[in-house]
Write a structure and sequence with these properties.
The complex is a heterotrimer of chains A (313), B (426) and C (413). Chain A has 313 residues and is an all-alpha fold. Chain A contains 13 helices and two strands. Chain A is globular, with a radius of gyration of 21 Å. Chain B has two domains: 23-301, ABC transporter involved in vitamin B12 uptake, BtuC (Orthogonal Bundle); 311-424. Chain B has a two-stranded antiparallel ribbon. In chain B, strands 3-4 form a two-stranded antiparallel sheet. With 413 residues, chain C is α/β, with parallel strands linked by helices. Chain C has 14 helices and 15 strands. In chain C, helix 4 links the parallel strand 3 and strand 4 (126-129). The radius of gyration of chain C is 22 Å and the shape is globular. Classes of the chains: A mainly alpha (313), B mainly alpha (426), C alpha/beta (413). Chains in contact: A-B, A-C, B-C. Chain A: Belongs to the binding-protein-dependent transport system permease family. LivHM subfamily. Chain A: Keywords: Amino-acid transport, Cell membrane, Membrane, Transmembrane, Transmembrane helix, Transport. Chain A: InterPro entries: ABC_transp_permease (IPR001851), BCAA_transport_permease (IPR052157).
């Protein structure tokens, strides 16, 4: 019971962090059909900008400035770089963002070095939110979760309840028609891309103070974020929330479960045989928990490419 | 292929056969890498250029080929009779088998979804391989040794080079021949209009699986060649960077031209051979080159060259050659400025400089770069790259205007060939 | 490999590479490290320490009448790139290969060296392994031309257990959390093996994916439910940092017994969380009885030796010791003789003597056990924290028996 409750708490907060990063990615994909390989780099950029700013102006200024800077970078990418390759199709847009990801990573290494940098949350935030089964639950985890929840609510309200949201959704469905109605579609796209990037930047600024900020953080999270977005359904905000939580919970629970395929064979009395075969059959779930998301992504792509909540195939 | 192209290819082949014995071991080894990555890129581009399927997980088939060849090598070491030069067959076979299965599933999807399926498959290999020690040897990998065969020792690099050359030429020609067969033509149609292929009565899915499998097979051969050359392989062959490298090479070289990927593979492999021990920022330069090519020459180096070859009759070399040289000069200036800034940043933000600053009690001591000493507080230090960059950009823009005008004049004469468009100037 | 194939390979290798130059050649050292890519940080430290060591050899007159030459090769962190750079090193005529940052690459290089030496008798190379701690390098893969100048898992764990027990920090329940690859498994096995000596019970063990886990909170929950006193971990880099941060955030009261806590950036990043935890490693500035070595290093490079720099310098010192017993009179360098001299060399490091065990070429070396404290003599990462020496375990006490799997084939002298 104790394990289940703590695992659920951990899984939910980690899932919400994943959502913070994937929200921007799914927003951009939903709108523009661009799978942004550089998205996780925006996340890393956010952490580093926040680190650089906060070391001079304090933690909260860093949190505030990072999404703005990263958002501006995102807007510049959308405005000046993507249109150049747009005529050559989505594959080239994908490749361009992929190249940008490489450059951002190397630039970070150039200026900040290869070691993790000393980006810390302020001492005022370093306390236990509550006690559970004798151990404290860090407040900052709740903080990360709260930021994610606020972000989801604001985005969702913005998209469904405001005029801007209607224009954005119209621009997604029927760009020509929206343009004919007098809306400046390129500007809309630029802002959507900028917002997506800014969200990643915010996530980086918030999470970077909790997890180490290092030049690999983009790559490490990047692939998982792809998994989230695919499983949730490319372009579906609700879907990526559900998928984030799912994967967060899964990686949390998998740690405690020493299941293996051989163990399952025990049920029918073939366990010893399976163990003698070895290989895949004896791998414990806890030791391959980082593998499972990829398997999940593969299955979703093959069975239901629209993802859990996606509308289109 | 025109006769000129045939002659050029034959000439290249003669050079590849005749020159290496006179080169140092380092260059022989670099050429082996060039050949292997060329074959890898060609195989990758069969899928991408021919069928329009962008794979982000070709490392899977490269790695599978390498491990298959190594296990066969181990069997040969233990006494199995198998001619060493035929080892890549094992890689090809393994690539084919895995390719059929992976291809069957991944080609159920297209576009971004296809790319993601391939990515997921490669990641599965990458994350499971280190746990499966029997097959992939844990993180240390599998190791073996090339065995002598028919008086050939395969102990020296040059022997490995010729073995690699033979296989790469053979496979390269086979791939080229494949694109000429009716089936090869059909895959091209798959890229352009899948619907129509279906209406013609072909099973588009099976056709894609076959292309995928052939691509994976040739990738497996390339992996096997690497295994033979290295005599070891570990799970890092499955890593995303291997998949990424082949994508970079193919698109910088040009995916629309058959030999484009070879150009890209050659450029990048030699780049890393010559540059990687000189500067720690070489990955940055590599990324920069890739992005610039994507932005200004989306058809790649091969595409630009092809564009010029196709229009050679309309182009007046005497007129356009001058502006091209000027543009090249501008490009070199920009490159020099960028390198200067990057290397300066590398020094100024590096650990050693931080220590030097400690030594100079917080000041900004001068640093050495390109054999000269530069002071960070001296405006000249920053004026140099600034002048280089601005001058380069200015020259490039001027030259580009002239070049644009010359091309426009040509385009008035012939309206054909609109595929490359603005790609020919960078 | 069959005897026949072995012989044939050697004969053919000898035939193809006959022309050796008879000029007075300098001793060439090649550092094959990851100088770009994701494991850059450690690679650069090794390179700096090796250069410092070589400078000292050269300051003392070099070798064979020439200064010793060093070349850096960037393996970008990959085994196949390392194999590639190895061939480049062969092309450049390198005699001694040095690598430290990765066990996997060490595995690759020791095999490369073995094969090279089989094929090119008379032009052998030595592999000085400064950091590859996988047991199999001196087990299954052990060979005459490979020397390991660092500890292995049993040495570090034995030292930790001894020192922590003596200072009453060990407790009776231990937990082992490690990365799921050879090093992590070695550490786990060592923790199990030392249980009776340390008088503790292993209440739980877990192996996890290497450098892929973002959130360690679930692992901390699992550790917590086992209620250990001490948590042994061989984790490094992110896996160590994340684990310690998650533990600190959860307010879990355990003592960590670590092996790579001194990696630069760790102390700064872990902050207060790191206080009171233990580490066993090859070298720590605070453990030296006089300041002579750290000060000399700082004078030459601008900073005190950190992380792997200390023991890497000792390895070069040991090489210098071995070279001083040899004299090729400006003629051809016989690498096998250098290897034999290394076997017999004893290096008096500031922490105690270091010698080579002939059976498997593992060095018998002192292990330092330290504890993270505030106000340390040598602060780490620009913080006010640092390491305080608990005990220096002498080599003969830390060493473990030769592994049965090591079947070393010695050169026919």
């Amino acid at each position: 019971m104790e394990f289940a409750i703590i695992s659920t708490l951990n899984g939910v907060t980690y899932g919400l962090l994943l959502f913070m990063v994937s929200a921007g990615l799914t927003l951009i994909f939903g709108m523009m059909g661009v799978l942004n390989f550089a998205h996780a780099s925006f996340y890393m950029l956010g952490a580093y900008v926040a680190y650089a700013v906060s070391s001079i102006f304090g933690f909260w200024t860093g949190i505030l400035v990072a999404p703005i800077v990263v958002g501006l970078v995102g807007m510049a990418v959308e405005r000046f770089l993507l249109p150049r390759v747009h005529a050559h199709g989505h594959a080239h847009e994908l490749l361009l963002t992929f190249g940008l990801a490489l450059i951002i990573e190397e630039l970070i290494k150039l200026f900040f070095g290869d070691f993790p940098v000393n980006y810390q949350m302020p001492e005022a935030l370093r306390f236990s939110a509550f006690e559970i089964f004798g151990t404290g639950y860090p407040f900052y985890r709740m903080f990360i979760g709260a930021v994610a929840v606020i972000m989801f609510t604001v985005l969702w309200l913005l998209l469904t309840r405001t005029r801007t949201g209607i224009v954005v959704r119209a621009a997604e469905r029927l760009p020509q028609m929206a343009e004919a109605l007098g809306h400046n579609i390129p500007i809309v796209f630029m802002f959507v891309f900028g917002t997506g990037a800014a969200l990643a930047g915010l996530a980086g600024a918030v999470a970077g103070a909790f997890y180490p900020t290092n030049p690999n953080m983009g790559i490490e999270l990047g692939v998982i974020v792809f998994v989230v977005v695919v499983v949730g359904g490319l372009g579906s905000l609700k879907g990526s929330l559900v998928a984030s939580l799912l994967i967060g919970l899964f990686s949390s629970f998998a740690v405690g479960l020493d299941w293996s395929i051989a163990g399952m064979f025990d049920v029918v009395g073939l366990g010893d045989w399976a163990r003698s075969v070895g290989g895949l059959l004896t791998l414990e779930l806890s030791s391959v928990s980082a593998t499972i998301p990829f398997a999940l992504m593969l299955i979703v792509l093959l069975v239901r490419p629209a993802g859990l909540m996606g509308e289109r195939n | 292929m025109t006769s000129i192209q045939k002659i050029l290819l034959a000439l290249l082949l003669v050079l590849l056969i005749a020159v290496p014995p006179f080169l140092g071991l380092g260059w022989q080894n670099a050429l082996i890498n060039v050949l292997i990555s060329s074959l890898f890129a060609l195989a990758f581009n069969l899928l991408n250029g021919q069928a329009g399927l962008l794979s982000f997980g070709h490392a899977a088939y490269f790695g599978v080929g390498a491990f298959a060849a190594l296990h066969l090598m181990i069997a040969v070491e233990d006494g199995l009779f198998f001619p060493t030069p035929l080892l890549p067959l094992a890689g090809g076979l393994a690539g084919l088998v895995v390719g059929v299965v992976a291809g069957y599933f991944s080609t159920m999807r297209s576009g971004v979804y296809f790319a993601l399926v391939t990515l997921a498959i490669a990641e599965l290999f990458h994350s499971l391989a280190p746990h499966l020690e029997g097959t992939f040897g844990g993180e240390a990998g599998v190791s073996s040794m090339r065995m002598p065969w028919m008086g050939l020792g395969f102990g020296t690099i040059i022997e490995v080079y010729y073995l690699t050359l033979g296989w790469v030429v053979l496979c390269g020609l086979a791939l080229w021949a494949y694109t000429r067969t009716p089936f090869g033509r059909l895959t091209l149609a798959l890229r352009d209009n899948e619907q129509r292929v279906k209406f013609l009565g072909y099973n588009a899915h099976y056709a894609k699986v076959i292309v995928f499998a052939v691509s994976a097979m040739m990738t497996g051969v390339a992996g096997a060649l690497l295994a033979i050359s290295n005599e070891t392989a570990n799970y890092s062959l499955f890593s995303g960077s291997v998949s990424a490298q082949v994508v970079l090479q193919t698109f910088v070289g040009g995916s629309t031209v058959f030999f484009g990927p070879v150009i890209g593979a050659t450029v990048f492999t030699l780049f890393s051979f010559l540059i990687s021990d000189l500067t720690r920022s070489w990955l940055f330069y590599q990324g920069l080159i890739f992005v610039l090519v994507m932005l200004y020459a989306p058809t790649g180096i091969g595409g630009v060259i092809g564009h010029h070859i196709r229009n050679r009759r309309q182009l007046d070399l005497a007129k356009i050659g001058g502006p091209y040289l000027v543009a090249l000069g501008g490009g070199i200036l920009i490159a020099a400025g960028t390198v200067f800034l990057t290397e300066s940043a590398e020094v100024l933000f590096g650990q050693d400089y931080a220590m030097a600053r400690d030594g100079a009690s917080g000041g900004f001591p001068a640093y050495d770069l390109f054999g000269l000493s530069w002071s960070p507080l001296n405006p000249v230090t920053w004026l140099v790259p600034l002048v280089l960059l601005c001058g380069g950009v200015f020259i490039l823009i001027r030259a580009r205007r002239v070049i644009d005008r010359l091309w426009a004049r040509k385009d008035e004469a012939t309206t054909a060939d609109m595929t490359v468009g603005a790609g020919g100037k960078e | 490999m069959t005897k026949f194939a072995f012989g044939a390979a050697m004969a053919l290798g000898a035939g193809t590479l006959g022309a050796a130059t008879s000029q007075a050649e300098p001793l060439k050292i090649g550092i094959i490290e990851s100088l770009s890519g994701s494991q850059t940080s450690t690679g650069r430290l090794y390179a700096r320490a090796v250069k410092y060591g070589v400078d000292r050899i050269n300051a003392a007159g070099g070798f064979n009448g020439e200064p010793v030459q060093v070349t850096e090769y960037d393996n970008a962190g990959g085994a196949s790139e390392a194999a590639d750079k190895f061939r480049q090193a062969v092309a450049d005529g390198v005699n001694i290969i040095i690598q430290g940052a990765s066990s996997a690459i060490a595995g690759q290089l020791t095999e490369d060296v073995r094969k090279h030496n089989l094929r090119n008798p008379g032009k052998e190379m030595i592999f000085m392994n400064l950091g590859g701690e996988a047991m199999e390098l001196t087990g299954d893969k052990c060979q005459f031309y490979h020397f390991r100048f660092t500890t292995t898992a049993p040495m570090r764990i034995t030292a930790l257990v001894n020192a922590m027990k003596k200072s009453d920090a060990l407790g009776s329940k231990a937990y082992a959390i490690n990365q799921n690859y050879s090093w992590g498994k070695d550490v786990q096995a060592a923790v199990e093996a030392a249980a009776s000596e340390g008088g503790y019970e292993v209440v739980g063990e877990v192996l996890h994916d290497v450098n892929k886990i973002q959130d360690f909170a679930p692992f901390v929950a699992r550790i917590k439910s086992a209620e250990p006193d001490t948590v042994f971990t061989g984790n490094w880099s992110n896996d160590l940092l994340l684990l310690m941060k998650a533990t600190g955030d959860a307010g879990l009261d355990v003592t960590f017994a670590t092996t790579f806590l001194d990696q630069p950036g760790n102390i700064a990043n872990a902050g207060q969380t790191a206080l009171g935890h233990y580490i066993a490693n090859n070298y720590d500035n605070a453990a030296t009885p006089t300041n002579e070595f750290p000060e000399a290093y700082k004078a030459a490079t601008g900073a005190y030796p950190i992380f792997v720099e200390g023991h890497s310098t000792f390895a070069l010192g040991q090489l210098q010791e071995a070279l001083s017993t040899l004299d090729f009179k400006g003629g051809d360098i016989n690498v096998t003789d250098i290897a034999l001299a290394l076997e017999n060399s004893v290096y008096q490091s500031p922490l105690g003597p270091i010698s080579v065990r002939k059976e498997d070429h593992q060095t018998i070396r002192p292990v330092v056990v330290s504890k993270v404290v505030k106000g340390a003599k040598y602060p780490a990462d620009g913080t006010d924290m640092g390491f305080e020496t608990v005990e220096v375990i002498p080599g003969e006490k830390a060493i473990y028996p030769v592994q049965d799997s090591c079947q070393m084939k010695r050169p026919n002298a």
